[in-house]
Amino acid sequence: MEVDIRMAREADIPELARLVAGIAAYHEALDVRARYDWDAIRDAPNWLRLVLNRDHHAVWVAEHEAGRLVGYLWARLRRMHDGSIPPIVGYISQAFLEQNWRGKGLMRPMLDAAFDWLRSRDIRVVTLGVLHRNWLGSNAWYKLGFSDWVHERRLELKPKPH
């Protein structure tokens, strides 16, 4: 089980795009409220190129064979515009491992690399969101040291009767 954990590069974009589609499909399967714009998902090669070239985003990949990715972790800096302290936090935008690679300890080294990257930018707080019905992912984040912080609520507005 040789897996290389490293920062993503532009050559990884086709595989990263495949994994982005994987996390979208996974979330949609977990909860009918989780919906994705599949045109935007298919356009991932274009927007991933932008993400990989921004200094406030970083992506790590788990490469099993040359050119074959089995997971990724995308971290970014998130500016808080509400007066919160600290005003900038680290945010885990997405993290995903293919099903056969879950539970094998691959997320930890990607997360450790992200923590080092965030520390190098003087970030001391890291947050993330987990889909409510993603119990497997939620438990994994607890095991990786995250704790409950904010519980986001959702309400779908129905059209007002005329």
Summarize the structure.
This protein has 162 residues and is α+β, with helices and mostly antiparallel strands. The chain has helices spanning 13-30, 38-42, 44-52, 107-119, 135-143, and strands spanning 4-7, 57-65, 68-79, 88-97, 126-128.
Can you walk me through this structure?
The structure is a single chain. This protein is an alpha+beta fold. Helices cover 33% and strands 23% of the residues. The chain has 5 helices and 5 strands; from the N terminus they run E-H-H-H-E-E-E-H-E-H. It has a 5-stranded mixed sheet. It is globular and about 60 Å long.
Query: What is the typical, i.e. mean, pLDDT?
Result: 96
Tally of alpha and pi helices? 5
- Biggest β-sheet: strands ordered side by side in the sheet: 1-2-3-4-5
Portion of residues within helices? 25-40%
Derived structural class: alpha+beta
Strand tally, please?
Answer: 5
Give the strand content: 15-25%
Largest sheet: 5 strands, mixed
How far apart the termini lie comes to 61 Å
Entry keywords:
about 160 residues; alpha+beta; 5-stranded mixed sheet; about 25% strand
Fold blueprint:
Blueprint: E1 4-7, H1 13-30, H2 38-42, H3 44-52, E2 57-65, E3 68-79, E4 88-97, H4 107-119, E5 126-128, H5 135-143
Parallel strand pairs: 4-5
Antiparallel strand pairs: 1-2, 2-3, 3-4
Helix pairs in contact: 1-3
